[in-house]
Amino acid sequence: MDLNLFAPEDYWTLTPAQRNDICNGCGTKGLCGIIVPDTFYGLSVTPACDIHDFMYATGSTLQDKQRADQTFLNNMVRLIEAGTDGWFLKRLRGRRAIIYYRAVRDFRGPAFWSGKGA
Questions:
Q1: 12, part of any domain
Q2: Is 38 exposed, middle or buried (0-12, 13-18, 19+ CB in 10 A)?
Q3: In a domain, 42, yes or no
Q4: Which of 14, 20, 34, 104 is most buried, judged by most C-beta within 10 A?
Q5: DSSP element (H, E) containing 24
Q6: Backbone dihedral angles phi then psi of residue 40, each to the nearest 5 degrees
Q7: Which domain holds residue 91?
Q8: pLDDT tens by residue, 3-55
Q9: DSSP-assigned states of every residue in 30-76
């Protein structure tokens, strides 16, 4: 699938080692992250999750968090649109994207602010 996702320019210049240190797909690092799938009914959304991880790691303001969350949703929708045939599966995946978006928007504030002195 040839698709351009939105991400800050710095994201695209990360080395594989830097990306591995910052990004971990969907969910949190460690055991808790295992319960959050990186796929929506067979479609990987890992790139959207990785970009979101990077934006959380580099952001420093509430506006940065909001931009990261909105970018996350937009990138998931782009992945779904490009990788899904059939309206029913597209609808199921879209609903899952909204759940993920609402979860980060409403409950991941501590993850964004961690280590930032806020």
A1: no
A2: middle
A3: yes
A4: 104
A5: none
A6: -115, 100
A7: 23-113
A8: 889 999 999 999 999 999 999 899 877 666 678 889 999 999 999 999 999 99
A9: SGGGGGS-SEETTEE-HHHHHHHHHHHHH--SHHHHHHHHHHHHHHH
